[in-house]
Amino acid sequence: MPVTTGMVGQGFYNRNSAPQMAAIEHVLPWLDEAVAVLPLGGAAPIGLADFGCSEGRNSIALMQRLVPALRRRTPRDIMTVHSDLPTNDFSALFRDLRPEGRSVFAAADVSSCAVAGSMFDRLLPRGSVHLAMTFNAIGFLSRKPVDRLPGYILPNGPSRVRGVGEVTAEERAAFADQAREDIRAFLAARAAELVPGGQLLLQVFGADGALRTCDGIYDVLNDAVLALVAEGRISRATYERYYQPVYFRTLDEITEAVETADIPFRIERGESYESPVPFNTDFARTGDLAAYARDYTNFFRAFTEAVLRIALADHPEAEALVADTYARAERLLREAPERYPFRYIALAVRMTRT
Ligand SMILES: C[S@@+](CC[C@H](N)C(=O)[O-])C[C@H]1O[C@@H](n2cnc3c(N)ncnc32)[C@H](O)[C@@H]1O
Questions:
Q1: Quick one: fold of 12-353?
Q2: How confident is the model at residue 294 (pLDDT cuts 50, 70, 90)?
Q3: Cα of 303 from ligand 1 centre, angstroms
Q4: Rounded CA gap, 92 and 30, in Å?
């Protein structure tokens, strides 16, 4: 079973994912490079597949860049594929793919579909994909490698700035191993779906030296949950079982996973980069602390709430506890923003299916 049911739906992820789009923008030129070398022989449609598309706003935006670039190379039919977990809320994606009843790509020879399933499984027909992509998603692990993470709510552990909590080296190693296996499972699935010479762009949040995308967000979420533990509203045992099954890799961890496995991919380029965060930029410009705390909290609520909800599922007050956790996090950010600085480090690797 996947470790999350997906993002907060009903448009909430779409409204609160500008930081993810900023991180995608950095690698849009990489997509142009990939399009330039795509093998376009044969008569079948050209398949462009995005794995972990969520509610689709960012997924459609990047396909809107790809489709005209591809049109300059071939008149062949194009199929855009938007894939996520079966429990993902696909409603906005479907609506936005056909605004006013016509394709958002404004062309009859571009078709789109949504495919539900885990990206770690084979999901599409053999040889049907020319360009496979995943953005801000593959850090969500395929499974929980340990039952409990008693000292903190994330395998990467707390930030140096905050320093509240602990993850042992042994615990962390179990997650690093799982993350390595996940990359390989993802690539094995894509190897079957991609045509030879097909391109793969793997982009994800991560860590680089002292900078880690997990810092700040999970510290404030951890502090908020611990505040409810201190008030006796969440039990210590529940806290010790709850963690977000997400792993923040380094670029080296990705390249090592690819290069030491028997999988038919060649790395063309890889980079770790820092991406601008719109709510940080806005705060620096306006000094509006309330807006900063709200936007920051909604940003991480969109991708953490589902897992917190699962952890509290048996609790009679689960709904109120979830709401109160994020209200508390927002308050902590307003009261002490200097404890929770957030920077977005992303990793990207472009590969060829050999
Ligand atoms: C933070 S969102 C990123 C969405 C979009 N790619 C973007 O960059 O804005 C992560 C997405 O990965 C999806 N996800 C998590 N585990 C997955 C899995 N095993 N297979 C497919 N999608 C998964 C989640 O449901 C979620 O929609």
A1: Rossmann fold (3.40.50)
A2: very high
A3: 9
A4: 27
Distance CA 312, CA 295 (A): 24
Enumerate the domain spans of the chain.
12-353
Q: What is the mean pLDDT of residues 300-304?
A: 98
| Residues 71-98, mean pLDDT to the nearest whole number | 97
* H or E element in which residue 110 lies: strand 110-116
CA distances from 237 to 101, 151, 169, 245 (A): 51, 11, 22, 18
- Our answer on whether the CB atom of 329 is closer than 6 Å to any ligand 1 atom is no
- Tokens representing 71 are 């049109």
Above 70 in pLDDT, residue 2? no
> pTM score, two decimals?
0.97
**CB contact at 8 A, 155 and 247:** yes
**For residue 281, how many other CB atoms are within 10 A of its CB?**
11
Instruction: Note the helical H segments in the chain.
Output: 12-15, 18-26, 28-36, 57-71, 91-97, 169-193, 217-230, 236-241, 251-259, 278-286, 289-311, 318-335
Which atom of ligand 1 approaches the CA of 50 most closely? 6
Nearest CA to ligand 1 atom 25: 6
